[in-house]
Structure formats: structure tokens, C-alpha cells
Amino acid sequence: MASPSLTVDEQLAYLTKGCVDVVRPGELKTKLERGAPLTVKVGFDPTAPDLHLGHTVLLRKMKHFQDLGHRVVFLIGDFTGLIGDPTGRSKTRPPLTAEEIAGNADTYKSQVFKILDPAKTVVDFNSRWLQALGAEGLVKLAARYNVAQMLERRDFKQRYESGKPIAVHEFLYPLAQAYDSVFLKADVELGGTDQLFNLNVGRDIMPAYALEAQVVMTTPLLEGLDGVEKMSKSLGNYVGVTEPADEMFGKLMSVSDELMWRYDLLLTDYSVGEIDAIKARVAEGTVHPKQAKSDLARRIVADFHSAPDADRAAAAFEARFSRGELQVDDLPVLTIDIDEESVGLAKLLSLAGLASSASDATRKIQQGGARLNREKVSDARMRIEPTTNPVVLEVGRKAVRVVVRRAS
Amino acid sequence: MASPSLTVDEQLAYLTKGCVDVVRPGELKTKLERGAPLTVKVGFDPTAPDLHLGHTVLLRKMKHFQDLGHRVVFLIGDFTGLIGDPTGRSKTRPPLTAEEIAGNADTYKSQVFKILDPAKTVVDFNSRWLQALGAEGLVKLAARYNVAQMLERRDFKQRYESGKPIAVHEFLYPLAQAYDSVFLKADVELGGTDQLFNLNVGRDIMPAYALEAQVVMTTPLLEGLDGVEKMSKSLGNYVGVTEPADEMFGKLMSVSDELMWRYDLLLTDYSVGEIDAIKARVAEGTVHPKQAKSDLARRIVADFHSAPDADRAAAAFEARFSRGELQVDDLPVLTIDIDEESVGLAKLLSLAGLASSASDATRKIQQGGARLNREKVSDARMRIEPTTNPVVLEVGRKAVRVVVRRAS
């Protein structure tokens, strides 16, 4: 963890580590040089949260600002929640009641305060000022932005050009989000890469309210355990923040070496220098990659449970695997969608992240290193049909459970 | 004036007389057939009014609905007035105060109740329900319409395609206007032709609020005294509704025969059948065009003053002109913009409405029928340069004052 005694350049490196966009680093440096705590705003949906590690990339970036003494606003966007889905096309999003929103906020807090420091986090709700804007205030706000600027947002542009409807109120949400920054006098706004346009709207309108434009920073989407798709519940390639320590540890030990460095960057407080040092030790052979992976997994488990829990999980994992025991129930379950009636085993092993390609998998099968439901398989051209229950796949020491699903 | 004992088809003919757009006549007929009074909504700007006959075309159409027993809502759009000009580009439109708006409403009433029946007119203010909508209500309203639909409005389309900015709030005004129709449960909305798109937005969204779509009707822009440009204060070709009876009468007597029929249609309650009957009598020679014009002028003067005032004005006019007296000060003043250093006399006479064309004017000059500043002129190729004070032009008994201006 970085200490407040860092130089401004070191602070800048720590805060921007792993970010996709920083608009603009020079402005962030200027703000840091002033020495006063910055207000860092991050917006969250008011729907019921159930977080996985993918969500923690952004939370951890918030923590980095807290580490350096800044003030983080965890902003729940309940204004849109109170409206519900106004397009009338969906009956699945009725307005949330104030009680539901408060309940969701509590669920959020119980999860995010495993990473964030409650004492340095302001939890706020944007309905407080957006409702007070009134109809006139919203019209005045809408005067701050142009239709043509709005249509530059990628999804708007694509829909407009392909003739898919954009309801007028969709133009109001980026402006409402921008007004949040005005109200909060944000110095920095963080969000996922898909939020870049919306965050920049805040940047654009702040000067019209006699405020310095906020710095905009985006964090990347985290790759799931397969190292290919983004981490998501529906793809099954995730680690939930409320999972038991052993399960979390086992899942993290299944990732590739390459993905390990990515997780080191995005799921820990290691500085870039520290990660480079570990990489160097692995490269020169003084640290085994498995050890580096175990260190990573222990750090992450410790964040969501405790350091003793992490140590126990590491020891249990080590004991099982050194005894050659495969604890099937501890294996992560991936869901793999296929476009055809069945999928070749070699391709499946590669999709499941157990081989780097189908030909790599074929070679491993031919070398006798692959197992299906604990039985050795030797026919690389064997085909697997969609399954209801997970099948267990193994290549060497790596193992995973897979549900094969026909994409509809 | 039409009487309530008319058949539905006769009512339809009376109500649609002179309109440019009627969306849709069949729906209006259905509404009329039900026999219940209709709610007819017409919106007006909250800025200080100073009406001329051009504005009365719309007011008279409102009166036609009142003549048939319907309920007319004179709606002052004070919601936008309360916001002011939110683009920040203009310093000339600060928000109006509630007192200013009330004052402007009183000025409106003193002028429009010369045509409308106060007992059948509801004066209302849209801030009443638009402010109550709040920010959420406005977002929900904006969900009812698409960006692509909005960009079909001609001026939006032109600005978007030519790269001129459209501020997002400009999309909210047609929707606010549409919501007025929802709130008032309008059966019919009237407006000028330039309002067609906005009126149709109301039509489009009403069904989403479980209301029958309003019928939309537009009235044309009235040609000014010159018969060419639209009537406007800045062009000088207007008759103000507060002008003295003699001045009003004299200006109306200066219009061409062709324009007289247009004014008969748009500035009186004559039915189409009555106008056709007058036309027939003029065509067969039983009524002199000057008499028809005098009848028209008397009707209009009576609307804004009284029948005795109109008779007096007609008699005074007749006395002056039959004595060959030209009361220069009573002549209307037209402003005519020219693109060149000077304008030919023949062309000027035609632009001033004293001849049907430049060649007609040339013939009249050659016949000795034209005067410039009371002096007979015989050179049809004479050129007139821009003037500061009006020059008096006469052709036969027709006379007018003209300011020639160099278009910049």
C-alpha cells in the first residue's frame, strides 16, 4: 500500500496504475500538487448488488485515493431508480421504493467496506439534488449540451445510424450524472471504460458552473477465470466477494500465469514497481510461478475474509493438491456456450482455459495428460454434447467444472 | 357568423376555412358528431404582446370554435418564460418575473378579447402543471419520444445537417407543449403553420396517456398590406389592432383586390359560401370592388372599435377621396428593401402594390396616372434611390407612402 509520504509523481503512478483512460494526467498532477484532499466521485446503480472481483477493480481504485488521504463519494444513483424504466417497453423495472433503495444501499455497504475505509467514504444519493432541480432546473441543465455532442457517444451513434430508437430521456441521464459532479464539486470521477463518455460530459459542463473540470479516470473490465471473456455471473467465470475462503482460493489458483499478472495489477494494492520485482524474481527462477499465484490468492482472500483465513485456505489447498486429491466440489464451474450440436473435446479444453489452443489441447490429450470426469481420455476428436450437470475437465494439475450450453 | 344549428359538415367547413393543415378532418368530424363541447387549446408566448391583424387569424379561428359552443383555452406558455433563455448565449432574455408575466397576460386579454368571447375563454398558464412535473416527471415525459423523430423537425434537421448546434433542452420544449395537451385533455390544438411539428408531438404522445389524440389545425401567415411579404411590424406592412379607426380603415382600403379576398377569408367570420357570393356579385358587376373592400374594412374596424366607429371612418374616407383630397398623413407607410443602388419607378409602384406588375406600372405611368410626391411622373425608367423620409406614390386613386431601404 502506498503511503502519503510519496512524491507527487509516485502518487500519480499509484493512482493511475491499471487505468484505461486518464483525462488528463497533467490536470490530476496539478490537483495533487495543491496538497488538499480531493473529492473523488463514483456512481453506482441502485439495483441490488452482488459483487464479484470484476467490480472490485473500481472499488480498489477508490481505495487507492483513500490510501492517499482523499475523500471518496460512493454515490448511489437512486434518481433513475425512483423513476423506474420510463420507456414503457419493459415491465421488469418498476420504480424502486425508498425502502428497497435503502436496503440495496446496506447490501452495497456490507460488501464494499471490505475494500473501502468506511471512515473515509461518503455514501450519498443523487435524488437529493436531482429532485430538487425540478423541471426548470432540468431544462436549464439540458441547455448545457448539444444534440450533436450527445450523438457522438458510440452506442447512440450506432443506434441512430442503424435506425434503432433512442428515447429523448436517454440524453438526460448523462446530463444528470454530470450535474452530480457539479453538485459534489468533484475533482475526479472514476468509472468503468464504458462510462468514459458520461464522465466526460461532467467534465464538459463543470466550467459553465464556474467549477474546475473534473479529472476523468476509467478502470478496465476484468477478464474472468478463463482469461478470455470479461468476468461475469452469467458466464460462470467469476469469483464472488462473498464466496468462502477455500472456494475463492481454489478458483484463483486455476488462473493462467499471464492472467495472474493482470490480477496482480487490478486486484491488489501492489505498486507497479512491486509487480515488476515479482516478475523479475519469477523470470530469474528465484520464485516459482505457483508461489507467486498463491501469494496473490492469499492477498485477495485476506481482503474479503482475513489473513488467517487466507493462510488456512492456502494450506488446505496445498495439502489436497500435494496429496493428489482433487476436491471436485471446490472446482470453479464455467458455462461455455456452443453454436453447434456438440463441441470437440480439444476445443472445449481450450475454451475452459486448460490449454492455450485446440492444438495444444490435442497434444496434451495424446500425451495422456487429460481427464474427463476423472477418467483419462485419449481420443482428441471426441465430441461433447450440451450437459445439464457440470463435467469435470483436467489437464495435468489444472481442473475445472464445465457446463456446456447450446447458444439459442 | 355561423350558428350552432349548422349540420356537422357545415360546422366542419366553417372551422377548417382558411386552415393550412388539418390533421385529420375525419377525426374532427367524429369529435363534432358526438355533440359535446370540445376543448380547444392554443399556446401563446409570455412575452409582451402587441398584436397586428396577422395575429388575429389564429384568434379568429379560436373564435370560430367559440361560435359553435366549444371551450377555448388561451394558454400562456409561462413555463419557458420563468426559465428565461437557458442557452446562456443571449443576455437579452432574462427570466420574466411572475409580475411581468401577469402584466403581459393582462395586455393580451385587453387585445384578444376584442375577438374572443371572455365568457367562453379559459386563460391558463402551463407552469401550473409543468413545474409540478418535477425532474422525474420531465424525464418520464422525455421517454415518450425518440431523438430520430425529433430530428425530423425541419429546423432541427437543417441545423443538425449543417453542423449548427441544437441544445438538448430544445428537444424538451415540444414535449412540454405536448404535455400541455395531455394535462388539458385537448380535443383540438391550433397554431401557426410553423407550429405543425410541435402540435403533432402532442398528437403523438396523447395515446400513451390513454387519451384520444388531439386534432391539429394550423392557420396561415397573413400577407401584409403589400400582398407579398408576411405582415410584420419590422416590414411596416401591418395594421395594429390598437390603431385608430380612420388609420385602420385607410390602410385596408389600400390593399389590392386579390388581397381583399384573402383578408375576407382570414380576417372575417364570412363563411366560404358568403365569400363566393360576394365574388360572384363583383364578377357580374352588381357590386363594385371598392364597395366590397369598404365592406371588409368596415367589418374589421368594427371588430376592434365599434360599428358606428367603422361607419364614421368609412364616411370620412369617402369624403376625402371623393373630394380628391389626399390626406398624406393617413396613408400607410411601407418599407421596401432593394438589393441595388436604386430601384426603377415602375418596379417600385408594383412592389408597393399600386400595380400588378412592373409592365402594368409602366403602362399606367405612360397613361399619366402615376404621381410621385403629388407630382405627375411620365418617365417610367426614372430611378428612385433609398430615402430617409417616406415618398408618396399614387396610381389613380390608390396612394401609399414608401420608405426605400438598401438591403444590407
Structure description:
2 copies of one chain form a homodimer. Chain A has 408 residues and is α/β, with parallel strands linked by helices. The first copy, chain A, has helices at 8-16, 25-33, 53-67, 78-83, 98-112, 127-142, 147-150, 154-161, 172-184, 196-205, 245-253, 257-266, 272-284, 289-304, 307-322, 345-351, 358-366; strands at 21-23, 39-44, 71-76, 121-125, 188-192, 215-219, 333-338, 343-344, 370-372, 375-376, 383-384, 391-395, 398-406. In chain A, strands 1-6-5-2-3-4 form a 6-stranded mixed sheet, sandwiched between helices. In chain A, strands 7-13-12-9-10 form a 5-stranded mixed sheet. A two-stranded antiparallel sheet of chain A has the order 8-11. In chain A, helix 10 (196-205) links the parallel strand 5 (188-192) and strand 6. In chain A, helix 1 (8-16) crosses helix 2 (25-33) and helix 12 (257-266) packs parallel to helix 14. Chain A is globular, with a radius of gyration of 24 Å. The two termini of chain A are 46 Å apart. Residues 88-92 of chain A have low confidence and may be disordered. Chain A binds chain B through residues 79, 82-83, 86-88, 130-131, 133-148, 150-151, 156, 160, 163, 165-172, 175-176, 208, and chain B through 79, 82-83, 86-88, 130-131, 133-148, 150-151, 156, 160, 163, 165-172, 175-176, 208.
Keywords for this structure?
homodimer, globular, six-stranded mixed beta sheet, alpha/beta, 14% strand, 408 residues
